[in-house]
Design goal:
The protein is α/β, with parallel strands linked by helices. 36% of the residues lie in helices and 14% in strands. Helix 5 packs across helix 6 and helix 5 packs across helix 12. It is globular.
């Protein structure tokens, strides 16, 4: 019997992946209501849709899936108590976020806002944190890895890591337990940061108290701050954005591969639940990249060369400019959602093949270790 599927319209590959299962009803993620779900069998969302028991109560929903890494927008246990299967897409866009952060760090390094080899504290060692640590170790940068739940991976704690040149946040958003992360960076912790440091958040907005952050940025010796996620989004305080070194509209994970991988993993989870045959590999669904191959010279400094190659795929400065320009024209919440909905899909490192001279052995090894296809 065909299924009725209500899906966030911004999930990619809805037709090839999900239409064969039944009728797909596409709606904006913020417009999903109990009335829409009354006769639906499956609900597919992204992170901006809060799914709890009240949303699905009285419906025929049997499966809730999110095409995202995180699940803090899903009230998992009450949903399961209603007999609903719950799934997400762990790790789907971790690589995209890690590459976004490398672009951010190398851009600010080029602008001399960071030392040549900054000490980086990575707070939260889930999929994204681990991917980022792997990239930074390849560069040889010193790392403080912080996660009270992963002592096998951590080499520091948050208090010790507060002196790092860069502190980048990758925790889930939690209010309970031994280590809650809601407002982890409150006024007291923000006061410990100084003007030689950079604070980055591309995890969950409310890990930083934004009211306290704005107050800190208005004080002497304030740190540099870059945000991709925002407390209260899609509403952004223009006064806060004006004081950031870089700001983007929650798109760190929005590579084409990351978004499609999330949908593909979700369809795999549905297939396992329904005992369907496995899907073809993800590469089957990816379009060919616009830029396939680049030939590089051997003489350039490897990190300068890396930044130029990365900018062929993605330049974070453009996302910052688009956000500031769009909000200057229309500061409403609709602007934030529009930027995300119409975001131009960037490609990940692995999509680009690089040719280097045989004598550039160290540079070849660096690019291969970072995930490029090196010829």
């Amino acid at each position: 019997m065909p299924l009725r599927i209500v899906a966030d319209e911004n999930i990619p590959l809805l037709d090839p992946l999900f239409a064969p299962l039944g009728e797909v009803v596409r709606v904006p993620g913020r417009a999903i209501t109990p009335a829409l779900l009354r006769d639906a069998d499956l609900l597919l969302v992204r992170s901006l849709t809060r799914v709890d028991a009240e949303l699905v109560r009285g419906s025929s929903i049997k499966f809730v899936g999110s095409a995202t890494i995180g699940v803090d927008h899903l009230d998992c246990e009450p949903l399961r108590q209603l007999g609903i299967e719950v799934a997400n897409a762990p790790g789907c866009n971790a690589r995209a976020v890690a590459e976004y952060l490398l672009s951010l760090l190398l851009t600010l390094r080029e602008a001399e806002r960071l030392p040549p080899q900054p000490r980086v504290a990575v707070v939260g060692l889930g999929s994204v944190g681990q991917q980022l640590c792997a990239l930074l170790r390849t560069l040889g940068w010193p790392l403080d890895c912080v996660d009270p739940y992963r002592p096998d991976l951590a080499n520091s704690d948050l208090d010790a890591a507060m002196q790092a040149d860069v502190i980048t946040l990758h925790t889930p958003l939690t209010r309970q337990g031994d280590h809650p992360t809601w407002h982890l960076f409150d006024a007291a912790r923000l006061a410990r940061l100084h003007d030689g440091q950079l604070l980055i958040n591309s995890g969950r907005g409310a890990v930083i108290d934004h009211q306290a952050l704005l107050a800190r940025l208005q004080q002497p010796r304030a740190p540099s701050v870059a945000l991709d996620v925002w407390e209260g989004e899609p509403n952004i305080d223009p006064a806060l954005l004006d004081r950031l070194v870089l700001g983007t509209p929650h798109i760190a994970g929005h590579s084409l591969e990351g978004k499609m991988r999330g949908a593909w993993q979700l369809r795999q989870a549905i297939g396992a639940w329904l005992e369907l045959p496995p899907l073809p590999p993800l590469d089957t669904f990816l379009p060919p990249p616009l830029l396939r191959e680049v030939t590089l010279a051997a003489a350039a400094d490897p990190l300068d060369l890396l930044l130029q190659v990365m900018r062929l795929l993605y330049d974070i400065r453009l996302d910052d400019w688009r956000l500031r320009r769009a909000l200057a024209q229309d500061p409403s919440a609709a602007t934030f959602d529009r930027l995300r909905k119409h975001y131009p899909g960037r490609r990940e490192f692995a999509s680009l093949r690089l040719r280097l001279p045989a004598e550039a052995e160290a540079t070849r090894a660096l690019f291969a270790a970072l995930g490029f296809a090196v010829v």
